[in-house]
């Protein structure tokens, strides 16, 4: 696996930023974790940024990894494309420790990218980002006629739905018949 | 982008971010989509208190709006123009094919050629709304200016109440005509009446008194003696005596009138009332002046959508109250500047009411 530490992208700070010195509270060093997507490119992300993801936060909360252990065991998300994971990491870094704004205008405008981002964000359980993405998906059909909505969201017609349902029933019937025949064969 | 590839939670989240007019538009895409909207948006639809049919005339729809989440959301428009733009399309609505286009300003569905077949189109649209938003949804058929006179009737549709504003300042409308109009119409949710010269009260059986909410200008408290609704606002031009009001409030106290009343406002334009005289004559009781009285407010029975008034009645905070003898129910009463009397009935006995005092 190539470990290029791309998480230190332009939007994300490479190292934890230093807070103003305080005589009272000793500073706790920020811990970092590593994630990679389908492209195996590893991103270094701070625990603070990863808090946005309920899935990853749940995974790391009890690990107590040292920096070396974390580096050696990146979390694999093989179902997420590398560029999509990069977007997610960037978003988490940008919104680390900040209240999330009511709108986010930096989401991808291309349909397919947005579609993949929604799936990734839903999988990683990033609630705020999912809400932004879903708002953006909803906006895509604003002021469109039913036929235009069908094209944008690729919604099947009633006839196509009926045909698919018939096909599914037929398949289920065949499978059931196959199982019965197999069971009868076993019994013999 | 294939919407059906998303898990249900994501589909629901997308639909949650769409307003009622967009969901309505989407429901025409396919039967399965309509099913998904109805199941995932059940909570949203249950929170719709009313759908407003704003009309040009008694039988002629102009647009449909839904008051929702503090907004007055346009849902559909009705145009008499024939479809002549490229963007027109047909949709099947409760078994009827109707021509539509997208309303240029509001981006919602707009019916074309409405007057070609308006009764049947209105019925199909109404049936679709009932089926889509839920069969218990209430509708207001709102006619704010009855230009064509009182001889027209409005379509008889399920769950629809009539809201009319009979503002006929320039015309003399005889009470007989009004009576005929009231008796020939079904349930009234709201009646606004502003007639000059001021009308005599209707006959005690008149449907006018059965309206849930009324607003009458140029009148006196006498007009409310037979009122069976919940909310009333009356405006009195002259005020020479408080006797009518005292009589009315004592009738409420004895349980002889205004039994369903929740809220009454009497606004006096000229003259003043004697606050203490009224309080003495109706046997008002007082909460200790050092304590904080409970605040009376409730949802408005009717909100004028176009101007979108506040959703709730103006709060009454008063140390003065009266108790109805028949069931021990309490009403807070407040007289502001000796000119505006507000009366709010609590769904509480005196004992329960006094527990609310801080």
TrEMBL record, chain A:
| BP-aspect Gene Ontology terms | protein ubiquitination; ubiquitin-dependent protein catabolic process
The keyword Phosphoprotein is assigned to this record? no
Question: Which SMART domains does this one have?
Answer: Skp1
Instruction: List compositional bias (Basic and acidic residues) regions by residue number.
Output: 165-177
Q: Which family does it belong to?
A: Belongs to the SKP1 family.
Protein known as: Skp1-related protein
* Signal sequence, renumbered to the chain: none
This protein's UniProt keywords: Ubl conjugation pathway
Q: Which SUPFAM superfamilies match?
A: POZ domain, Skp1 dimerisation domain-like
Query: What residues does the SKP1 component POZ domain cover?
Result: 38-96
Originating gene: Cnig_chr_III.g8742
The pathway it acts in is: Protein modification; protein ubiquitination
Q: Annotated region Disordered: where?
A: 1-25, 160-188
What the protein does comes down to: Probable essential component of SCF (SKP1-CUL1-F-box protein) E3 ubiquitin-protein ligase complexes, which mediate the ubiquitination and subsequent proteasomal degradation of target proteins. Regulates cell proliferation during embryonic and larval development.
Instruction: Write out the biased-composition intervals (Low complexity).
Output: 8-25, 178-188
Matching Pfam families, A to Z?
A: Skp1 (PF01466), Skp1_POZ (PF03931)
- Domain of life, per UniProt, equals Eukaryota
TrEMBL record, chain B:
Give residue ranges for domain F-box: 1-48
Q: InterPro entries from the entry?
A: F-box_dom
Q: PANTHER family given for it?
A: F-BOX ASSOCIATED DOMAIN-CONTAINING PROTEIN-RELATED (PTHR21503:SF8), F-BOX-CONTAINING HYPOTHETICAL PROTEIN C.ELEGANS (PTHR21503)
Record's protein name:
F-box domain-containing protein
Q: Which organism is it from?
A: Caenorhabditis nigoni
Q: Which gene encodes it?
A: Cnig_chr_X.g24990
């Amino acid at each position: 696996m190539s470990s290029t530490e791309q998480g230190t992208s332009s939007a994300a700070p490479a190292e934890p930023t230093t807070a103003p010195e305080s005589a009272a509270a000793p500073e706790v060093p920020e811990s970092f974790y590593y994630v990679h997507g389908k492209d195996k490119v590893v991103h270094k992300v701070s625990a603070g940024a990863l808090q946005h993801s309920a899935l990853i936060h749940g995974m790391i909360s009890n690990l107590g990894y040292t920096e070396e252990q974390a580096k050696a065991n990146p979390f694999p998300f093989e179902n997420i494309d590398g560029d999509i994971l990069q977007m997610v990491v960037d978003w988490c870094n940008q919104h680390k420790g900040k209240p999330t704004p009511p709108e986010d205008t930096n989401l991808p405008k291309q349909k397919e990218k947005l579609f993949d981002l929604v799936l990734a964000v839903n999988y990683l359980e990033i609630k705020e980002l999912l809400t932004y993405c879903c708002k953006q998906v909803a906006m895509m059909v604003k002021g469109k006629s039913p036929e235009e909505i069908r094209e944008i969201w690729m919604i099947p017609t009633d006839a196509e739905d009926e045909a698919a349902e018939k096909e599914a029933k037929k398949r289920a019937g065949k499978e059931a018949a196959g199982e019965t025949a197999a069971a009868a064969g076993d019994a013999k | 982008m294939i919407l059906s590839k998303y898990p249900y939670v994501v589909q629901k989240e997308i639909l949650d971010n769409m307003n009622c007019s967009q969901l309505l538009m989407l429901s025409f895409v396919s039967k399965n989509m309509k099913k998904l909207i109805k199941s995932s948006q059940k909570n949203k639809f249950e929170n719709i208190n009313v759908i407003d049919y704003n009309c040009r005339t008694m039988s002629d729809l102009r647009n449909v709006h839904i008051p929702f989440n503090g907004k007055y959301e346009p849902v559909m428009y009705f145009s008499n123009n024939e479809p002549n733009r490229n963007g027109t399309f047909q949709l099947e609505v409760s078994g009827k094919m109707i021509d539509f286009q997208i309303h240029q300003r509001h981006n919602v569905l707009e019916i074309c050629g409405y007057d070609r077949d308006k009764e049947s189109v209105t019925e199909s649209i109404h049936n679709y709304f009932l089926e889509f938003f839920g069969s218990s949804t209430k509708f207001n058929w709102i006619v704010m200016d009855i230009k064509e006179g009182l001889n027209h009737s409005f379509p008889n549709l399920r769950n629809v109440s009539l809201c009319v504003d009979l503002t006929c300042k320039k015309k003399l409308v005889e009470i007989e005509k009004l009576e005929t109009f009231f008796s020939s119409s079904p349930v009234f949710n709201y009646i606004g009446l502003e007639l000059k010269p001021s009308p005599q009260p209707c006959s005690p059986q008149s449907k006018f008194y059965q309206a849930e909410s009324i607003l009458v200008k140029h009148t006196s408290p006498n007009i409310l003696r037979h009122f069976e609704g919940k909310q009333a606002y009356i405006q009195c031009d002259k005020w020479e005596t408080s006797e009518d009001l005292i009589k009315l409030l004592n009738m409420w106290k004895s349980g002889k009138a205004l039994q369903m009343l929740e809220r009454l406002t009497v606004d006096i334009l000229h003259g003043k009332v004697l606050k203490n005289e009224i309080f003495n004559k109706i046997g008002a009781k007082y909460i200790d002046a050092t304590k904080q009285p409970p605040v009376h407010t409730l949802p408005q029975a009717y909100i004028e959508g176009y101007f979108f008034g506040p959703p709730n009645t103006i709060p009454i905070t008063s140390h003065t109250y009266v108790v109805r003898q028949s069931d021990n129910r309490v009403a807070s009463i407040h007289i502001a500047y000796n000119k505006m009397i507000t009366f709010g009935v609590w769904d509480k006995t005196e004992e329960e009411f006094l527990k609310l005092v801080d």
